[in-house]
Amino acid sequence: MHSMITAACSLGLMGLSTDAFVDRFDAVLAEYRPDRGAECRVEAAAVASIAGTIKSVSEDGAGFVLVPDERDEEITISVQDTTVYTLNGITSSRDEALAAGRSATVTHQDNVASRVDVTTPIDPAL
User: Fold this and answer.
1) pLDDT digits (tens, 9 = 90+) for 4-19
2) pLDDT tens string 45-86
């Protein structure tokens, strides 16, 4: 097992796409345990990014509703304690960043946010 972990770490992403990394990692797994075949297959996480406007934020802070820029369909996004927030490019907290009417780009997997980048309108008077 140690040699498999060492081999996986030595691969590193090194600028590879996720799919290319997974393919290389699968090759290492196949060499390590060729008898297990597809059972050893590593699945790439389906991470997506979507931009839109925050419509509402749940009172308990567990998520928010986003209206994507490219469609009118609302999406409910869940957040976790590990979700990272930025407000106008600066690291922020959930309470400071999330507010109805703000623009947000959400990096998520299955509508669970790992990162939320929020921007506020620029005041023309400044």
Assistant:
1) 444 444 444 455 555 6
2) 678 999 999 999 999 989 999 999 988 789 999 999 999 999
Phi-psi region of 106 (alpha: psi -120 to 50; beta: other; left: phi over 0): beta
Sequence letter at residue 39: E
CB-CB contact of 110 with 45 (8 Å): no
pTM of the shown model: 0.63
Whether the Cβ atoms of residue 116 and residue 103 lie closer than 8 Å to each other: no
Give 85's strand partners: 92, 116
Query: How many other C-beta atoms can be found within 10 angstroms of the C-beta atom of residue 33?
Result: 12
For the chain, the residue count is: 126
Structure tokens at 116: 């939320």
